[in-house]
Write a structure and sequence with these properties.
Length: 360
Amino acid sequence: MTDRLAPEIFRLPVERIRDGYYSDAYFVSTKQLLEHDDHHPRVTMQVFQKEQSFLGGIDEAIAILKLGAGTRAANGEWVDGWDQLEVRALYEGDPIAPHETVMTITGDYALFAHLETVFLGSMARRSLIMRNVRAVVEAARSKPIFYFPARHDHWLVQTGDGWGAHIAGAIGVSTEAQASWWGGRGIGTVPHGLIAAYDGDTVLAARKFADRYHPDVNVTVLVDFDNDSVATSLAVAHALGDRLWGVRLDTSESMVDRSLWEQMGTFKPTGVNPQLVENVRGALDDAGFPEVRIVASGGFDAERIRRFEDASIPVDAYGVGSSLIRGQNDFTADVVLVGGQPRAKVGRRYRPNSRLEAVE
């Protein structure tokens, strides 16, 4: 990706960022001291992380610099400092190596010292999402990944996380906010709540859903409400016909689906397991519904998806949730040059990167 997102898309709380509201206090103190002392060292700061990963949040980091670099005049007016900085950076979604420099900022340190906390946090979060999503996309061998962690984290992270998941290869996200930065739409399935609202009748809920939303959405139905995924899948397929895009298996890890009760003994029977998928696929095919897709969800991560794919389990798409927002991908920023001369702390050094491109 070589186009950058415009700063306004992030809807940043600009005045609070400028005033250091979201910044570690010592960075705010640093800016204030440099200004009070009328000390304006021209520094080069470089940013890196320590994982084999994918770069996310860089456009938001640049937006923070564009809108947040500067100083307050004596009358309280903000004096922009962006055009006094030279910034070079990689792009959203770029693969990055451990310790590879992903961005450099050169200019008066007093103009941007207060922004480090904010732009590093954006990059850490988005890169974590990208790395995790890319791992499951690769494990699924090009099968669709539906990004479903919205309920597992604070709603404010949805916009940027959804963007990161999209860039990393997720085929669908579940909320409008997650899809907003590229103009997409949230997707979903006939949920348990709707089935319950129709007195636990999955077929009735599915029919009502299809009547209202088909063909504008791919109608996919959760089929574990009665813990009988084979029978429910067949009932929904017969009721909806070609309006049914897929069925979603989501059996709890504490439950054994009814179709497995006579097969137990040689495998772990709980949750969405390979034999359950095989049972549902076989039943649908035998009943004349080979076009109905199977979506597997419930505790999937890259390792579990890889096991399913290695065994050629007939899953058509995976819904993945909380595992995509777990872990860490922290970034570090160091002042490495002052006045063009090496000034990095012991153990760090200036590491130029020919991949970086100037930011306008």
